[in-house]
Write a structure and sequence with these properties.
Radius of gyration: 45 Å
Number of strands: 19
Distance between the termini: 108 Å
Structural class: alpha/beta
Largest sheet: 5 strands, mixed
Number of helices: 65
Strand content: 5-15%
Shape: extended
Strand order of the largest sheet: 1-2-3-4-5
Helix content: 55-70%
Length: 1363
């Protein structure tokens, strides 16, 4: 009860002492004190102080968040006013405007001042906040005078202590920070209790005892009862009261005749009081005097031994023990003291042999044995301590030893404990230990006595257990209580400083530093605080070569910091070479490299900072100290090295509670591109209480959204939106619906919420306005967007969004109609004095300099109702009246739009979002020049595919284009899309892959899915390869290819540049609607057939993959990464499949699947022919062609003029073709149809003509070679037609005959030569050319393209030929 009463009295004192709080004398103290107050008010332990005096702080001294919600950002500006100084409206306005520019935006802004409370200045602040509310931004603005501050302090005791340290020992509270700067090396270097401290503490735990002999006389009985009452007060913690009472009793009984036993009891209790109050010498004296009064009393004997034990007179105690072993006259307390003396005397045998058998199972004796065992090697003391805690739960020492045994099991001799390395058993022991130590510490604090070493050890070990558990907030509570202990030893103060540094409580560290004696550890803390504060000038004064000044393990780090401090004031040309030398000197030291990297970043030397960072990162491996790892990881996080942060932290930090490091890990995994498998595993592995918190739920939703797991993301954001709606979540829901092709659900979603009341950033509000436009609510959209623009005129993104919104509105003209000057219009006046003035009339405060007037303003009121050309006259107090003529009037929405168009490039010169060019009369050259430049950009993209041979999927990503559009652009540029090499081994491998896939599934990229849908062959793919998978990002590409309904349905046109000319393409409403409908049908077909799946990249990706992802975007390899569990890739981009092959993923192309299906009879000849013709039309090169395919195309040609055959035949005789196989296909068709009466003769001849023309179009002067091979295999009638065709195309048949004769002669000569020399010759020797010189035969080019028969797999074709 006493502890509770003291606490309430203390709080009452604080409440009554408000008016006595002195004002701070300097700004730094005031800022520090305010940080403590606001940390408690906002419930934000990580509240931050910004900048230093003289630096640009953007209107803020302190920034934090309210109720752990990062959207509720709060800024505080501290204003120290001396004397009767006051805040001015000008000063308040300046600070408020600076606060408005903070990004992300503040929701609250407070000015805290030592000036007296001023009602007028607060009303001014209220008006400013209302103006922002009217402009679309919600921000609270409060000014706190000194009286308001002191009133508030009564609610926060710790903050009161900061403002007035006369109320406690602590002047500062927690200010959050991000870097840990000190290892716990002192914890491992020293045992939990030093041997000497353990000696004193364990001895003092045994209070001197008294006797309880029955007294015959009534007076003795009365005195015994009185002594017992005083003794109980002593044991109850009322030491000083008991001491006063015993002293008074002794004076009284000395005047009377009392027994020696009574004197012994009184003096023994006086000695006990002195010992418990920390007066050791006095306590020993009284114990020995007490013994003299009753030398035969068992407890007196024990007390005498206790006194000698305190004097470290081990031999006397052991001698008393030997005597008692024979006589057994003393009680068990002597036996306890004897065992403790044996421990310190070096006795090594069983200590129980020193005491009588009757005492060997007594609690105090067994506790002494546990302490004895603890001083020896081994773990026996831990087992015994835990047993004693169970047997004697009322014994504080037993519980303390058991708790310390658990703590020692976990910590051992480690100099730094990483929480993540702890097992579940370790964590259980730590929690058990901290719970017990906390209970013991509460008991100790309730006692009125000077704490001894054992009790201080309880406090220190409790602090240590909290630190190892990562519970820094609880550790800091104990630190403050420890620092309040009078005469605290230096080692405990140092440990408290280490705990504060680790917790990031830098003000507490600064408070503790003056209490530390000179030592290397103190110097280290001082230096680290200087680094954290950026106080390089102080560091520059230190000696970098004083190695004895710092701990050996930290000397490199300290020397580096001092060297950097000495460079701070140098000019760049002087400091850069020396910085490079520092980087080189510490390249193997991670923490020193990180300090150097941060220093270089602050000095705006990014190249040097990057070099130092690379050095630090490269030196972290599995053997690295955890402190180094954490320091490098947090630097990586602050500088957005997401993958490095994740790799450094994952599996190296605790995940069972929220922490700065855990948030850094979660954030980096979500920001890492692409999302990797480790991200999904991380969130799945979080404990439920952490995972379900708002912060981690939001991050998990982002992770699922980014990797395409939209159903899971929808569940998270939908639930959060219902619980706490805000624009950020609403936009996530809208994007999820759009990515799932569920755009029709967006308008009802928008209607569910009162959008204007939802919190959000300016750009979030602009995006919601765009969604309102898409939903058909154009007036609501522009009504929401305008106030946001008005409040953020210098925000590039807001300006651009407004312009795009207006451009996209179909009925903007209906919205901006005006009938003269009115509220909501922009007016330009021309004055009779030769000056113009323009302004917008709208509700709110007047701002003439900004161009805004309220309807009540004199000029605006006179202008309302007037029209262009009308005049108004404004009387002047001095001089003539000014007559204003209304020169122009337009709606404020239109004026804002025009203002953006006119000034965007001037205000934002580096922006690429909006550009303008000037035109003179009917001169369209600026427009045409812009079209030409855009066309050149498209040509560069196509060149990357055609010439650089980069997959068009990657090209699309580089140019931020849709891959389907890029493929179409390649065809429009009269280039082919390379789908395969076109050789037999390639096709055989494809057939084998299909057969061996066991229908485990196939993954399509966006272009392959689009092509398969338009060819209507998705069912064939599924039948051949099993389930069809489509990455969510590929579906995104298909949806963006269609568009989101943003294209105006009214007639429009586009300009494009090709071949040096500019062309116009008109888009009618019917065309736009038909295109959208057709694409939607294909998407619907794809969604019905395919499994849309999320993608997580492997955790370990190659440097090559990383480079591609960095250059081309995070999603380019999604189809490849989705090819797991035996799935194959289907892509019409040969080069993309080659990339996949390098990544150990097998791939196919469409025609290979169709050919294999045709060979199995799984697809009809006609359906196969239709698909292949469409591939040919789409310029998928090469297309495998055979005679039956040609015949089928002819029979079913829808055009009637063989245009489909012409499209198919472009792959006969293509560049680099294998002319032997191509000629064979033409010959096979001609011979197969020679006697076919069902084929019209003229159609057949026209078909042969098309095939012949395509066959020789790229041969040049070598055209006779394929013709000669073909002519030799034809019948008479077809040979005759061929000769006629040659003549009709101005080709001389005689050249063909001469070539044949030369070939025959050459073959004969070679045969004779071979027979004479007995040497075998090849049947494919070089042919003689048409000029008589020997020429080589047709050979396969480097990348041969075959047009072999596609109807059967090669193995079946060979067996057919054998038959």
């Amino acid at each position: 009860m006493r502890a509770s009463l003291i606490w309430h009295a203390f709080k009452d004192r604080m409440a009554l002492s408000r008016t006595q709080i002195p004002k701070p004398e300097n700004h730094q103290d005031f800022e520090r004190q305010c940080a403590i107050l606001w940390s408690e008010k906002l419930k934000d332990p990580n509240l931050q102080r910004l900048g230093r005096s003289g630096q640009n702080q953007h209107g803020l001294d302190i920034i934090g968040i309210r109720d752990d919600d990062p959207r509720k950002r709060v800024g505080i500006q501290c204003k120290l006013k001396s004397g009767n100084g006051k805040l001015t409206e000008k000063e308040v306005l300046r600070e408020f405007q600076a606060a408005l520019a903070i990004k992300p935006p503040l929701t609250e802004f407070h000015i805290v001042t030592t000036a007296d409370r001023d009602t007028e200045i607060q009303l001014f602040a209220d008006r400013l906040a209302v103006e922002q509310m009217d402009a679309g931004r919600k921000i609270r603005f409060i000014i706190w005078g000194w009286q308001a501050i002191t009133d508030e302090l009564g609610r926060y005791p710790d903050a009161l202590l900061a403002f007035d340290d006369s109320y406690g020992v602590f002047g500062q509270q927690t200010v959050a920070a991000v870097n840990k700067g000190i290892d716990l090396q002192q914890e491992g270097e020293k045992k939990v209790l030093a041997a000497l401290a353990e000696m004193h503490s364990s001895i003092k735990m045994q209070a001197p005892a008294d006797t309880t002999v029955e007294l015959a006389l009534a007076i003795e009985k009365y005195l015994d009862a009185e002594i017992d009452g005083y003794r109980d007060a002593n044991k109850g913690g009322q030491r000083r009261i008991a001491l006063t009472q015993f002293t008074a009793l002794l004076e009284r009984v000395q005047r009377e005749s009392v027994s020696g036993r009574i004197l012994f009891r009184i003096k023994a209790n006086i000695g006990s009081c002195h010992l418990l109050l920390g007066n050791e010498a006095e306590g020993i004296k009284w114990l020995l005097e007490a013994y003299d009064h009753a030398p035969l009393e068992p407890k007196a004997i024990a007390n005498k031994a206790y006194a000698h034990l305190l004097m470290e007179d081990w031999e006397t105690v052991l001698a008393m023990g030997r005597e008692n072993l024979k006589s057994e006259t003393a009680d068990e307390m002597l036996s306890s003291h004897v065992i403790q003396a044996a421990r310190f005397s070096g006795f090594s045998d069983d200590p129980l042999t020193l005491v009588p058998p009757k005492d060997r199972e007594v609690a105090c004796v067994l506790l002494a044995v546990a302490l004895f065992q603890r001083s020896k090697p081994g773990e026996d003391w831990k087992t015994l301590s835990r047993t004693l805690a169970e047997r004697f739960p009322e014994e504080r020492l037993a519980r303390q030893l058991a708790a310390e045994a658990d703590l020692d099991d976990v910590i051992g001799d480690n100099d730094y404990i990483n929480h993540v390395s702890l097992t579940e058993g370790d964590l259980e022991k730590l929690k058990r230990s901290s719970l017990t130590l906390a209970e013991l510490w509460q008991e100790v604090k309730a006692e009125d006595k000077k704490l001894d070493e054992a009790e201080i050890a309880i406090c220190g070990n409790l602090m240590l257990s909290y630190r190892v558990l990562g519970d820094h907030a609880s550790a800091m509570i104990i630190v403050r209580e420890m620092l309040a202990i009078p005469d605290l030893d230096d080692d405990s103060v140092l440990r408290a400083a280490a705990a504060a540094m680790e917790a990031g409580d830098h003000p507490a560290v600064e408070e503790i530093l003056p209490r530390l004696p000179a030592s290397s550890s103190r110097n280290l803390l001082f230096l680290q605080m200087a680094v954290l504060k950026g106080d390089w000038d102080t560091l520059a004064k230190l000696d970098p070569d004083d190695e004895e000044a710092y701990p050996p393990t930290e000397r490199i780090l300290c020397r580096t910091a001092i060297r950097l401090g000495q460079l701070w004031r140098l000019r760049d040309e002087e400091s850069i070479p020396q910085l490079a030398k520092v980087i080189q000197d510490v390249e193997k030291h991670p923490r020193a490299s990180i300090i150097t990297a941060q220093y270089c970043a602050n000095k705006r030397q990014p190249a040097l900072a990057e070099k130092a960072w690379v050095n630090a990162r490269s030196n972290i491996d599995d053997r690295s100290h955890i402190a180094s790892r954490m320091m490098v990881a947090m630097y990586a996080y602050r500088h957005r090295y997401w993958s490095d942060t994740a790799s450094l932290l994952i599996e190296h930090i605790a995940v069972d509670r929220d922490s700065e490091e855990l948030r850094a890990l979660a954030g980096s995994l979500v920001q890492e591109r692409p999302i990797k498998q480790r991200a999904t595993a991380f969130f799945a592995g979080l404990p439920a209480e952490v995972r379900s918190s708002a912060h981690y739920r939001y991050l998990e939703g982002l992770m699922e959204f980014n990797r395409g797991n939209l159903p899971s993301a929808e569940l998270i954001f939908s639930a959060d939106m219902d619980a706490s709606p805000r624009l950020e979540l609403l936009l996530m829901m809208i994007m999820i619906l759009r990515r799932q092709n569920r755009g029709t659900e967006i308008p009802p979603l928008l209607a569910r919420f009162d959008i204007e009341t939802l919190d959000g950033t300016p750009i979030e509000k602009m995006r919601i306005a765009e969604e309102l436009r898409r939903a058909g609510h154009e007036r609501a959209a522009i009504g929401m967007a305008y106030p946001v623009l008005r409040a953020n005129l210098n925000d590039e993104a807001v300006n651009l969004s407004y312009a795009i919104l207006v451009f996209s509105m179909e009925h903007f003209g209906d919205t901006i109609g005006t009938n003269g000057v009115d509220v909501g219009t922009w007016v330009q006046l021309s004055g009779s004095h030769g000056k113009d003035f323009d302004f917008v009339i709208e509700e709110g405060a007047d701002d003439p300099s900004g161009g805004y007037l309220s309807p009540t303003h004199k000029l605006a009121a006179e202008a309302i109702g007037k029209a262009v050309g009308d005049t108004i006259s404004i009387p002047q107090q001095i001089g003539d009246h000014i007559t204003w003529t209304i020169k122009e009037v337009k709606h404020r929405y239109l004026h804002a739009f025009h203002d953006i168009l006119a000034n965007f490039q001037t205000k934002f010169p580096s922006s690429k979002g909006l550009f303008a060019f000037a035109m003179k009369e009917d001169d369209l050259s600026p427009v045409l020049d812009m079209v030409r430049r855009l066309a050149e950009r498209s040509e560069k993209a196509i060149d990357l595919y055609v010439k650089a041979r980069i997959p068009f999927q990657l090209v699309a990503a580089v140019f931020h284009e849709n891959p389907i559009n890029i493929a179409g652009g390649i065809v429009e540029a009269d280039e082919d899309i390379s789908t395969c090499l076109g050789i037999d081994p390639e096709r055989e491998a494809a057939y084998a892959l299909i057969r061996n896939s066991n229908r485990r599934g196939v993954v399509l990229d966006a272009h392959a899915a689009w092509t398969a849908a338009t060819l209507d062959v998705l069912d064939i793919i599924e039948a051949s390869l099993g389930p069809i998978y489509l990455p969510q990002s590929s579906l995104d590409n298909l949806i963006t290819f269609r568009g989101f309904g943003d294209i105006k349905k009214s007639p429009s046109m586009t300009l494009f540049h090709r071949g040096g000319e500019t062309f116009r393409r008109e888009h009618t409403q019917e065309y736009v609607e038909a295109r959208e409908q057709y694409i939607s049908q294909q998407i619907e077909k794809i969604e019905k057939t395919c499994i849309v799946a999320p993608v997580a990249a492997p955790n370990d990706i190659t440097p090559f993959e990383s480079m591609i992802l960095e250059e081309c975007g995070e999603r380019v390899f999604d189809p490849i990464y989705l090819c797991t569990d035996g799935r194959v890739l289907l892509s019409e981009d040969l080069r993309y499949r080659q990339f996949a092959k390098e990544m150990r993923v097998e791939g196919l192309w469409l025609q290979a699947i169709l050919m294999e299906a045709r060979g199995r009879g799984a697809i009809s000849a006609q359906r196969y022919a239709d698909a292949v013709v469409n591939l040919a039309i789409l310029r998928h090169d090469p297309v495998a062609i055979d005679a039956p395919l040609i015949r089928s195309v002819i029979d079913h040609d829808p055009s009637g003029d063989l245009r489909t055959l012409d499209a198919l035949a472009r792959y006969i005789g293509s560049r680099g073709a294998d002319y032997v196989s191509h000629t064979a296909v033409v010959q096979e068709f001609i011979n197969a149809t020679a006697n076919d009466r069902s084929l019209d003769r003229l159609v057949r001849q026209r078909s042969i003509s098309i095939l012949l023309r395509k066959l020789i179009r790229h041969t040049g002067d070598d055209w006779p070679l394929p013709i000669a091979m073909l002519e030799e295999q034809l019948g008479f009638d077809d040979r005759t037609y061929l000769i006629g065709w040659l003549k009709g195309h101005f080709l001389n048949p005689a050249i063909v005959y001469a070539l044949r004769r030369r070939v025959s002669a050459f073959v004969v000569q070679q045969t004779l030569a071979a027979s004479r020399h007995g040497a075998a010759t090849s049947s494919q020797q070089a042919l003689l050319d048409t000029r008589g010189a020997p020429a080589p035969a047709l050979q396969s080019p480097r990348s041969p393209r075959s047009s072999g028969r596609p109807d059967l797999p090669p193995s079946k074709r060979r067996s057919k030929r054998r038959r």
